[in-house]
Amino acid sequence: MSDESSRELSRLWRILRTVKQMCADRGYELTEEECNISLADFRAQYADESGAPQRTRMAFTARPTDDMVTKYTPLPRPAARNNAADELVPQIGLIHVEFANEPSVGIKHLKAFAQLLNEKVYWTGIYVSQAAPTPSALKIVPSLLPTVMEIFKEDDLLVNISRHELVPKHTLLSAEDKKRLLERYRLKETQLPRIRMDDPMARYLGLRRGQVVKIIRKSETAGRYASYRWTI
User: Fold this and answer.
1) In sequence order, what are the beta bridge partners of 171?
2) Residue among 77, 89, 98, 91 at smallest CA distance from 27
3) pTM of the entire predicted model
4) What b-and-e string marks burial along 192-223, b requiring 16 or more CB atoms within 10 Å of the CB?
5) pLDDT digits (tens, 9 = 90+) for 172-183
């Protein structure tokens, strides 16, 4: 194996680990072994005979855990509380992750990915690209509903930001926990401090507009303290 192939193999190994850890932290069913795959196992599974890594082999799918399903199940509407026929549908499902094999990503690549998500009935898709998609390609992403599509650059996934000692623990609240929080402090959600959807940790957790995240920080005086952010 050439030095270039060896470096690229190590680089993609780190990226895959970060992506799987990210999905596990969101609440998808991934084992510790999958999230922390060794370099040797990565080479055996995702490299060709010459030792060169193959991005097409790195795609994976995961299902949400029961805890994640609970967090993404909306509360019943007041008018429907006593209506047994009004079943609350979780706003979550299978996630599919794909790694772009081409060095550049355009409209046709994102449309093809969206079509795959729709055909396979994946709720969320993560598309990992070698470079940022073209501006015209990014413009069409909002029109590719009902699927949720997220795009990450490989370089942004080389390091897992959530594991950095200076990044506090972020935990998504369920709809029920959010309701209790607002009732306890007699607040409207708009009165909470805010976190933007493009914040690095909001992107890491896949936060959606209106969700509330709990942030645990260390304190020299109090030990640990919690704050809350409303996603906008």
Assistant:
1) 214
2) 91
3) 0.92
4) beebeeebebbbbbbbeeebbbbbeeeeeeee
5) 999 999 999 999
